[in-house]
Structures are given as structure tokens and as C-alpha cells.
Write a structure and sequence with these properties.
By secondary structure, the protein is of the alpha/beta class. It has five helices and six strands. It has a six-stranded mixed β-sheet. The longest helix is centred in the C-terminal third of the chain and has 19 residues. Helix content is about 30%, strand content about 20%. Helix 4 packs across helix 5.
Length: about 210
């Protein structure tokens, strides 16, 4: 069996995600490279109905384009009181031209007046791994918590200003990047992905979701 390429392509154009992912995959045995290093790369539409489906379709497209090992994350916020929304539509929950603050405001507006268990939420991240045309596997990370009554904090991105992880009193946006990554959904998923990548680098180990 041929040794895996030393490159690991991260299939995201989101600079905030790229910084988090590169930081957390340090030491995985691969040279982490953003998909932006590869001109003409596809921009696959996230048509999947689950985080896993979207993560796989993106990782597959980027791996085939580059001919290298590639990972892609799909993540979002799930609020039971909103029937699981925003879910896979988290990035564009407030509309096609929305920004992070627009999405946060929409969640707060929809939960206005709700208390206690009605404000429970879970952040989910799924990371899929492809090597060229071969599906290597996928891992999942979750972080339960609750939605605040207002936006708090200036760190992070996405829904970080309105999400307090279980057991803490600060939002993700009020935590340092290191503190957030220790408990976050993406931190947990990438910790599992890093272990899978180390095993794959050593001998072609494949993991399945």
C-alpha cells in the first residue's frame, strides 16, 4: 500500500474555521493546507439533509480535485424548541446575505420569552475524511448547552455569542480560543479526527461513522 500524501487539504473557505482547524490539527503528521491553495477548486453546494452528508460531499469534492487527503467539517446549532433548527442551515439561517449577527438575532427573536429547558441547544460538528476518491471515514463532536437572552462576548464566530456550554457560565464568545476548543463541538470532532489521521498516516487505518 502506498504511503499517504504528506498534504492534508482543509475544505473550507471560512477563515475563522480554517484558523481553528489548523490550530487543533497541529501535530497530526500532515502538512495542513487550505483549499484556497488549489486554484479552480469546486464550491460544492451543501444539499445534504444531515451534517454527515454535507461534510462527505465537500470532502469528496476537494479530495478529487486535489488528488490529496482532504477533510471537511459541517457544523451547526440544533435547538429542540425550534424543531432542531437552525441545523444544517445554520450558516444561512437568517437569509442568503446574512452575517453572524443576523443569525444570532434570529435565534434570540424566535426564543424570546422562552425559559429553562426551552433554551437548551446542542452544537454539532461532523468531520469527513477522503483520500482522493477513497472515503476514509468521519467523526462527530457535540457540545450541549443553552441559548442566552442576548449576545455576549467578542471572540469566536457564528453563534458563539449566544451559546453557553453546559457546566459553564460564559458564552463561547467570552472564552479564550484555547478554553473554547477544550469543550466545543468542533474541538471534540477534530480531536477524534486528529487521532484518526495519525492512525491513517501510520498504516492506512480507516474509521467509519
Amino acid at each position: 500500500m502506498a504511503a499517504p500524501s504528506k498534504d492534508l487539504v482543509v475544505g473550507s473557505n471560512n477563515p475563522d474555521k480554517l484558523r481553528e482547524i489548523a490550530r487543533m490539527l497541529k501535530g497530526c503528521g500532515f502538512r495542513v493546507r487550505p483549499i484556497g491553495d488549489f486554484p479552480g477548486h469546486p464550491d460544492p453546494e451543501e444539499t445534504g439533509r444531515t451534517f454527515l452528508a454535507n461534510a462527505k460531499l465537500k470532502a469528496r469534492a476537494f479530495a478529487r480535485h486535489t488528488g490529496r487527503l482532504a477533510i471537511s467539517d459541517d457544523s451547526g446549532l440544533m435547538v429542540p424548541a425550534l424543531n432542531g433548527r437552525p441545523g444544517v442551515f445554520s450558516a444561512r439561517f437568517a437569509g442568503p446575505r446574512c452575517d453572524y449577527a443576523d443569525n444570532c438575532r434570529k435565534v434570540l427573536r424566535l426564543l424570546k420569552g422562552k425559559k429553562g429547558a426551552s433554551r437548551r441547544a446542542t452544537f454539532v460538528s461532523v468531520v469527513a475524511i477522503y483520500d482522493g476518491k477513497k472515503y476514509v471515514g468521519a467523526v462527530r463532536g457535540e457540545c450541549p448547552g443553552r441559548i442566552t437572552d442576548s449576545m455576549r462576548g467578542k471572540n469566536g464566530f457564528g453563534y458563539d455569542p449566544v451559546f453557553v456550554p453546559a457546566g459553564l457560565s460564559k458564552t463561547f464568545a467570552e472564552l479564550s480560543p484555547a478554553a473554547k476548543n477544550r469543550v466545543s463541538h468542533r474541538g471534540r470532532a477534530l480531536a477524534a479526527a486528529k487521532k484518526a489521521l495519525v492512525r491513517y498516516r501510520a498504516g492506512g487505518y480507516c474509521t467509519r461513522p
